[in-house]
Amino acid sequence: MQRIKFMWKLFLNQPAWFKLVITITFLASIIFSSSYFSENNYYESISKLAAAIFFSVFGFKTRGNRQTSIIFFILSAFCLLLAIWAFF
Known about the structure:
Blueprint: H1 2-12, H2 16-32, H3 41-61, H4 66-87
Helix pairs in contact: 2-3, 3-4
């Protein structure tokens, strides 16, 4: 429980643009990947694009730790590839 409180305090100390982008992309990824939107491939592509933006922002934010930043950027590239693949 202490770790969750620590992560929450760390999140609250971030700039407003970071909190806004992370919250919007996280919710968009969850909402558009739900079964309600599963009939249309465009929504699936939007979901994966939102996940790519989510990982890119975290990669940008963790530039100080090179290994972690590279992992986030690789995840972002993979999500972008999946978004393009789902679109076609």
